[in-house]
Specification:
Layout: H1 2-35, H2 40-55, H3 60-69, H4 72-80, H5 84-88, H6 96-160, H7 164-173, H8 176-185, H9 188-196, H10 200-212
Helix pairs in contact: 1-6, 6-8, 7-9, 8-10
Organism: Paucidesulfovibrio gracilis DSM 16080
Coiled coil: 102-150
Protein name: Flagellar motility protein MotE, a chaperone for MotC folding
């Protein structure tokens, strides 16, 4: 049982270390993305907006009609709506080839970030699965121990109802570890009486094992 817990602990610790490394790698990628430079889209939009403002008509009648025709909500929507053509076009003064490389790098980083998120979700699912298996194993081992304790209690009760000579004859041929547990479950006087009917050398071995028993059997 200790070995099983040790193995489970190693697996879980390795998985948690993997999660930490992945999270660190994700932060590094995001930092690189931030250090590559400001978002070119706002620059392109502002650059494209400048000539449009210069070319706008200055007549008061046209301005009044435009303001009255567009509601505040529609105006906000128009300001927030991205211009696809402007986003695809490079900013003024920037080489189109460099702009294409930058856009490609942004797409690659976005794809890597999506992959990291998927991997993180997968690892988290595996961790939860391992924790579930660990809980099931611990519950199973607990059930096995309860069954063994119940069987041992029945054996102790049976030998306690036997005559000392009859119990000694059976314990003398039994596995020593089990015999010691049964003797430990008997009352001291009764166990001594049973040992008196066992062969001297065997009785000495059982007595020594009883003395070295670190955890005495606990009766309910």
């Amino acid at each position: 049982m200790k070995w099983q817990r040790f193995v489970s602990g190693i697996k879980i610790s390795r998985v948690l270390k993997t999660l930490a490394v992945l999270a660190l790698f994700k932060l590094v990628l995001l930092g690189v993305l931030c250090l590559d430079g400001p978002d070119p889209v706002p620059s392109a939009v502002s650059t494209a907006a400048a000539p449009q403002s210069e070319a706008a008509p200055s007549g008061p009648s046209l301005a009044t009609q435009a303001v009255s025709a567009v509601s505040p909500t529609q105006a906000m929507a128009q300001e927030d709506a991205p211009d696809a053509a402007t986003e695809q076009a490079p900013p003024e003064g920037m080489d189109p080839a460099d702009w294409a490389v930058l856009k490609r790098r942004e797409e690659e980083l976005a794809a890597k970030e999506r992959t990291l998120r998927e991997l993180e979700s997968s690892v988290q699912a595996e961790v939860e699965k391992l924790e579930g298996l660990k809980s099931q194993l611990e519950a199973l081992l607990k059930d096995v121990k309860n069954v063994e304790d119940e069987r041992l209690q029945k054996l102790i009760k049976a030998y306690a109802n036997m005559k000392a000579k009859q119990a000694a004859a059976v314990l003398e041929t039994m596995d020593q570890a089990l015999a010691v547990k049964i003797l430990a479950g008997l009352q001291g006087r009764q166990a001594g009486e049973v040992l008196s009917f066992i062969e001297t050398r065997k009785a000495a071995e059982l007595s020594e094992a009883l003395t070295n028993l670190r955890v005495p059997f606990e009766q309910p």
